[in-house]
């Protein structure tokens, strides 16, 4: 292997090629020309002393080594992003960038008003919001702050419990007027149910005993909580959603409140190394206070 350490920009180009599947697609994603990106790949292969892609009429085929390099290059990308966010503060004043991650529903339905209030108080802070149902790795610095629906266990994290977000079963009044309102849990099997496509362990833990709510019974299956929420609002059928969100629309009717009441323990989390960062602490405290009010509503 050559003694020259490859520059980060070469790995960034490498990740783009792996993600896009072609030099042309990667060049478009990075705003580069295809010849420049191709030169990056040749320089990286030369520096590593190994072939990363096999050329064929069908395009580029990653070698086994290329696939093994991906998680390490992704770690470099996360570290580079964390460095940029740290450097963007520049001074001790409350400015700079904070990256925040939360579930799809929290990110799209709950946080916008909370972040608007924060922006009015701290206009110098730029927020990067990454809604995803895949938990970000705070130890790897994929994000500065995370809103988690389970208690974190890593010792290097600071976590504040903000309450329990209740889930209930809902349908739009339009659906119930057209199809009738079920009077017992057993009658749910005769209705259009909205639910998951992939059953995750936490779903099995939360599901009440006796509730006919399995994948085989769903008329609409989706792993997107936002899509399920939109389907309930559209009158497609009956589904489970956050009670506080559904209360905002009087045409959404809660069904079986005594039998179907699930609780998501909610936490605001950050890495302990970010404690000295004033901008991160300000957003952390603001989120914790606002989400405590949301959970109590």
Automatic annotation (TrEMBL):
InterPro entries: LysR-type_TF_proteobact-type, LysR_HTH_N, LysR_subst-bd, WH-like_DNA-bd_sf, WH_DNA-bd_sf. The keyword Transcription regulation applies. It holds the Pfam family HTH_1. Residues 12-63 form the HTH lysR-type domain. Keywords: DNA-binding, Transcription, Transcription regulation. Coiled coil: none annotated. Belongs to the LysR transcriptional regulatory family. This is LysR family transcriptional regulator.
């Amino acid at each position: 292997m050559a003694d020259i350490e490859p520059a980060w920009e070469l790995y960034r180009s490498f990740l783009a090629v792996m993600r896009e599947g072609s030099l042309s697609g990667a060049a478009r994603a990075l705003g580069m020309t295809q010849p420049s990106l191709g030169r990056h790949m040749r320089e990286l292969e030369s520096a590593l002393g190994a072939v990363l892609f096999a050329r064929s009429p069908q395009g580029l085929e990653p070698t086994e080594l290329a696939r093994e390099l991906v998680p390490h290059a992704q770690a470099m990308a996360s570290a580079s992003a964390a460095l940029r966010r740290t450097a963007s503060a520049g001074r001790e004043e409350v400015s700079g960038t904070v990256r925040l991650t939360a579930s799809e529903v929290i990110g799209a339905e709950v946080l916008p008003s909370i972040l608007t209030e924060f922006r009015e108080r701290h206009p110098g802070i730029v927020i990067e919001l990454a809604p995803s149902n895949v938990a970000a790795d705070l130890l790897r610095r994929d994000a500065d702050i995370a809103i988690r629906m389970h208690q974190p266990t890593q010792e290097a994290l600071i976590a504040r419990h903000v309450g329990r977000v209740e889930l209930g079963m809902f349908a739009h009044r339009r659906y119930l007027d057209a199809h009738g309102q079920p009077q017992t849990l057993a009658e749910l099997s005769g209705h259009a149910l909205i639910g998951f496509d992939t059953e995750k362990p936490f779903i099995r833990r939360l599901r009440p005993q006796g509730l006919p709510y399995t994948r085989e019974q769903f008329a609409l299956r989706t792993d997107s909580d936002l899509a399920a929420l939109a389907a309930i609002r559209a009158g497609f059928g009956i589904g489970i959603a956050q009670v506080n969100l559904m209360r905002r629309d009087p045409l959404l009717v809660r069904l079986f409140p005594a039998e179907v009441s699930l609780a998501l323990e909610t936490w605001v989390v950050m890495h302990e190394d970010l404690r000295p960062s004033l901008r991160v602490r300000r957003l952390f405290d603001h989120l914790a206070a606002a989400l405590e009010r949301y959970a109590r509503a």
